[in-house]
Design brief:
seven-stranded mixed sheet, single chain, Metallo-beta-lactamase, Chain A, Rossmann fold, 13 helices, seven-stranded antiparallel sheet, 28% strand, Pnp Oxidase, Chain A, alpha/beta
Length: 573
């Protein structure tokens, strides 16, 4: 991961005729949301078009307010700022807009109708100039800049709006096609270096709203676009065709999963939505599709349509005045009247003081006869990185329970052994040394038993490890992450400890003697040897990620013979 002491700044670059990007940059992790967990920093991209009329697109959140306005002031006369276009609106962005209004009170906000409602509520009694746009509307800035608008509502951003400038053929995409990575590079020359970051961004933000992502791709497919100008990361120019194709491929894969979980939530201050996002990340990692439903904007018909076809459901709520919001109570009523009692359920929520809404949901579902797939998740105030990891692990466990249930219900094949059985037996004859992989990133620590391990290179010394997509530790194995490979000796004590199932958030090392390696990860003192490794690359391979890591240090700890994992079949561990 990127380590730096650089301060926040604003990078300003001309990207087309009359058009600049103002990239508010931070090299540190911006928030605890799962989308920022690779800790490579981010850029909050805002755009300035100065023609006969002047417009700012997507001012950043309050973390960048001061630097951003200082940089903007150098480049325009406040009295000549006509419009501010909002790809979405939230309270975090509201702080910057308030500061902007003090110097440019004449500004007209251009946004979708859902954004206008939230904007008015945020500013309450203040008089605002708002232009609500729909898909067929345009905004003439002069000089050929006849801006067009594409509404892109999703559960997370029901007010989503893209802006297209036919003069420059730039599509300003806000929350689509971004990446949380900070650097000096403005566009994506050598675009493949961003592939991992862009995939991670998609998985965190869009995998749980794949249906809406496909709808957005269809809407923009007829536009002639030179490049995407997203809200985060580099401009998407050189890898635009590839990334567009991948968004479609990933979204189609998510939409065609065999199992589907309905994730219903409301979020007063964004904390419940953050928890929902982390749970969704775990579900999708484990190969289960998610239909996210923001109950604050979804209709009763939309909720009913989703829960009728779900294989399981999870409901999340904030606690407001000691109660669940009306929208959640309405959604719960639809669930109780629609979803069969054999469907697995889950409950989560955030609160400031008491959390009665979580108790309410739990009791109503249990009284109705539903089985809960996990103990209700209760988050006081904002979730931290440890809680985010726990929520992801909870989503993984919930998905695995659904998959197991489906396998148990599936009819047993009849007849003798097949060719695939014989192939599986042959693959099972491949053996590997038995190891425990331990990893740590800031406050999050995890471990897993691994046997698909092999030396890969002499110079530099390197190894490969296959990590299943649904393993909790997988999220700590991205490029730049560090881990320790503990090579086990023959014997069952350590092996038995790490073979057991761990509850979400449970300490994998409780009761095991460890010490800290130079890279900060746990070393099992009872292991035969250990290697300190840094992830250099990874490749997606079916249901696993193949991780290539360079060995930076190593030591033999004890005498003995390396434990080897023998299997009868190559179809399971």
């Amino acid at each position: 991961m990127l380590q730096t002491t650089k301060k926040k700044d604003v990078q300003v670059v001309i990207i087309a005729e009359d058009t600049k990007v103002l990239r508010s940059r931070t090299w540190d992790r911006l928030k605890f949301e799962v989308e920022y967990s690779l800790q490579k920093g981010t850029t909050a991209n805002s755009y300035l078009i100065q023609a006969e009329k002047t417009v700012v697109i997507d001012p950043p959140g309050e973390s960048f307010t001061t630097n951003y306005l200082e940089s903007l002031q150098i480049r325009l006369d406040w009295h000549r700022l006509d419009y501010v276009i909002l790809g979405h609106f939230n309270a975090n962005r509201g702080a910057t807009l308030k500061a902007l209004l003090t110097v440019a009170p004449q500004v007209t906000f251009v946004c979708s109708n859902p954004a206008a409602l939230t904007l008015k509520d945020y500013f309450k009694d203040e008089e605002l100039k708002i232009k609500i746009v729909k898909g067929e509307d345009t905004l003439d800035l002069g000089g050929g800049h006849q801006l067009q608008f594409i509404t892109t509502p999703t559960p997370k951003w029901p007010d989503g709006l893209m802006t297209y400038d036919p003069q420059t053929q730039i599509l300003f995409t806000d929350k689509f096609f971004g990446a949380h990575v900070c650097g000096d590079q403005v566009a994506d020359e050598g675009w493949s270096v961003y592939s991992e970051d862009r995939r991670f961004y998609y998985d965190c933000l869009h995998a749980a709203q794949a249906k809406q992502a496909l709808s957005t791709l269809e809407k923009i497919s007829q536009l002639t676009v030179k490049f995407y100008a997203p809200g985060h990361g580099p401009m998407v120019r050189y890898g635009m065709m590839e990334l567009t194709s991948l968004y479609r491929k990933w979204s189609q894969e998510q939409s065609s999963r065999d199992l589907n979980v309905a994730l219903l939530y409301a979020s007063a201050y964004g904390n419940t939505a953050t928890v929902a996002q982390a749970i969704a990340r775990g579900l999708t990692k484990a190969g289960v599709a998610v239909e996210s439903i923001n109950c604050e904007v979804a209709t009763s018909e939309e909720i009913k349509e989703v829960v009728e076809k779900c294989d399981g459901f999870i409901v999340g709520s904030p606690t407001l005045g000691g109660h669940a919001p009306t929208q959640i109570q309405t959604a719960l009523g639809i669930v109780l009247n629609t979803v069969s009692k054999d469907k697995l359920a889950g409950v989560f929520g955030s609160f400031g003081w008491s959390g009665e809404a979580i108790d309410f949901l739990e009791s109503r579902l249990k009284d109705a006869g539903y089985k809960l797939g996990f103990e209700p998740i209760r988050v006081k105030f904002k979730p931290d990185d440890v809680m985010i990891q726990t929520c992801k692990e909870t989503g993984i466990d919930f998905a695995q329970a659904l998959i197991k249930s489906k396998k148990l219900r599936a009819p047993k094949p009849s007849g003798g052994g097949s060719g695939s059985d014989r192939t599986a037996q042959a693959v099972g004859r491949v053996v590997g040394s038995l190891c425990v992989m331990s990893a740590k990133r800031e406050n999050v620590t995890s471990a897993m038993l691994a046997s698909w391990v092999s030396q890969a290179t002499f110079n530099p010394p390197g190894i490969t490890i296959a990590v299943a997509k649904d393993r909790a530790l997988e999220s700590l194995t991205h490029t730049g992450d560090k881990f320790v490979l503990n090579i086990l000796a023959e014997g069952k004590q350590l092996r038995k400890h790490f073979q057991k199932s761990f509850a979400p958030g449970e300490d994998r090392f409780a009761g095991v003697e460890t010490k800290e390696a130079n890279n900060g990860c746990p070393v099992l003192t009872g292991a035969l040897a250990y290697l300190e490794c840094k992830v250099a690359n990874r490749m997606e391979c079916g249901d696993h990620w193949l991780v290539y890591a360079v060995v930076e240090n190593g030591q033999v700890l004890n005498d003995g013979v390396t434990a080897v994992h023998f299997r009868k079949s190559g179809s399971h561990y």
